[in-house]
Amino acid sequence: METPPRPSRPIAPTIFAPVPELDTVGYDRMARDVRSLLGIDLTQYKPAQVWRRVNGFATAKGLASPDALVARCKQDADLRQAFLDMLTINVSEFFRNPEAWEAMATQFLRPALLQQLSVRVWSAGCSLGYEPLTIAMLAREIAPSKPISILGTDLDDTTLARARKATYTEQQMAGVSPARRARFFRQVGANWEAKPELQALISWRRHDLLKDPYEKPFDIICCRNVVIYFTEQAKTELYKRFGDSLKPGGVLFLGATESIPNVRAVGLVPSGLTFYRKP
């Protein structure tokens, strides 16, 4: 005789911590501390969203408040780096939103490479280097020997140091096809390293989009999913500065869910989904 199945235990309901309401005094205090500790100006970010993220990060680390988090960060370098990574949102991948990259390559990068003597591209907020290397791969597929200069910038020095190594795990390589791996990377143990001829196309630099000068001119500027927590005023100023840094006819490439509401006010015109051209 079969043993009758035991009744399953009821699943306990998931209890979520309440979303903290914005404490403006606490936020201002945290912003001052973060600027001193990390060099980031949180007054240019959306307070409610940042306050929620910081409180969630503090709770995940077993700390009771942003004040406790900042105090611990002053003593713990690893936690300080993790806090910086969280604030600067170092999340990306190779060929993120492939259809957008295909449009960028065919509509903008290919004409620039085939019609000009040289091309300059800026990856603003390049994180671990996925975006500059994606651009480099596309450029070499389109025009194997055409001069191209790619600038990768980020606020986080530690992230930039990892980008310069151009070494990625198997999981991080998920967006790179076998053919592109064979052509542009070499396997080093369990990891993959971009070949020197690809790395040679890219220069890396620390840069704060909110306060540092912008180089110019560029044919293409990529700033994808970087400024989503900036205030609307900060975004408008940033888009104006991007427009000033583009050559006439140059294009700004944003993330799949990003847009510029009053685009002509910043000196650009729409040129397809997530693309804005300088007239």
Query: What is the topology, as strand order, of the major beta sheet?
Result: 6-2-1-7-8-10-9
- What integer value in Å does the Rg equal? 22 Å
Q: For the record, what CATH class of the largest domain applies?
A: Alpha Beta
The main pleated sheet reads as:
7 strands, mixed
Q: Share of helix among residues?
A: 40-55%
Q: How are helices and strands ordered from N to C? A: HHHHHEHEHEHEEHEEHEEE
Q: CATH topology of the largest domain, what is it called?
A: Rossmann fold
Structural class: alpha/beta
Total discrete domains: 2
> What proportion strand?
15-25%
CATH architecture assignment name of the largest domain: 3-Layer(aba) Sandwich
CATH superfamily of the largest domain: Vaccinia Virus protein VP39
Shape: globular
Number of helices: 10
Distance, first to last CA = 81 Å
Strand element count? 10
- Low-confidence runs (pLDDT<50, min 5 residues)? 1-16
Give the overall pLDDT as a whole number: 89
Fold topology:
Elements lengths: L23 H15 L8 H14 L5 H8 L3 H12 L9 H18 L3 E6 L5 H13 L5 E7 L2 H9 L1 E2 L9 H7 E4 L2 E4 L1 H4 L2 E5 L11 E5 L9 H14 E8 L15 E2 L4 E3 L2
Parallel strand pairs: 1-2, 1-7, 2-6, 7-8
Antiparallel strand pairs: 3-5, 4-5, 8-10, 9-10
Helix pairs in contact: 1-3, 5-6
Describe what this molecule looks like in 3D.
The chain has 279 residues and is α/β, with parallel strands linked by helices. It has 2 domains: 24-88, no CATH class; 98-277, Vaccinia Virus protein VP39 (Rossmann fold, 3-Layer(aba) Sandwich). The chain contains 10 helices and 10 strands. The chain has helices spanning 24-38, 47-60, 66-73, 77-88, 98-115, 130-142, 157-165, 178-184, 196-199, 232-245; strands at 119-124, 148-154, 167-168, 185-188, 191-194, 202-206, 218-222, 246-253, 269-270, 275-277. The protein has a 7-stranded mixed β-sheet with strand order 6-2-1-7-8-10-9. Strands 3-5-4 form a 3-stranded antiparallel β-sheet. Strand 4 and strand 5 form a beta hairpin. Helix 1 (24-38) packs parallel to helix 3 (66-73) and helix 5 packs across helix 6 (130-142). The chain starts with 23 loop residues before the first helix and ends with a strand. Mean pLDDT is 89; it is low at 1-16.
